[in-house]
Amino acid sequence: MVPTFFEPFARDLIQLSNLEQTSGSILDVACGTGILSYLVADSHNIIVRRVVVGIHVNPSMLRMARHSYSRKSIEWIEGSAISLPFPDDESFILVMCQQGLQFFPVGFRH
């Protein structure tokens, strides 16, 4: 049900993000079951090198993402958007969040 409901929104977000020529690391915050991460990983051409990282606080959602999209080169990480588990020298060319913002604490959304 989740991919069926959220896939059209994910495709719109990808189109708005102009990813065709984007290479580098892309972070999907609050990735849930992984539909946006999957579509981002799937949207590149062979000339563009792209790394997709999906992060989510709920291990059950990540298990579903890993199971559903195991054939894609996506790095799945359990962690919180409030305290991202990345070193200071790690960077992403794009950070996306499709449907997670409404679940963040009120003060964090501002």
Automatic annotation (TrEMBL):
Tell me if Zinc-finger is a UniProt keyword of this record. Answer: no
Which Gene3D superfamilies does the UniProt entry name for this protein?
Vaccinia Virus protein VP39 (3.40.50.150)
For this protein, the record's Pfam families field holds: Methyltransf_25
For molecular function, the Gene Ontology terms on record are: methyltransferase activity
SUPFAM superfamilies per record = S-adenosyl-L-methionine-dependent methyltransferases (SSF53335)
Q: Would you kindly state one Gene Ontology biological process term found in this protein's UniProt entry?
A: methylation
What keywords would UniProt list here?
A: Methyltransferase, Transferase
Domain of life according to the entry: Archaea
What PANTHER family does this protein's entry cite?
A: 2-METHOXY-6-POLYPRENYL-1,4-BENZOQUINOL METHYLASE, MITOCHONDRIAL, METHYLTRANSFERASE
The identity of this protein, by name, is Putative methyltransferase type 11
> What is the organism field in this record?
Nitrososphaera gargensis (strain Ga9.2)
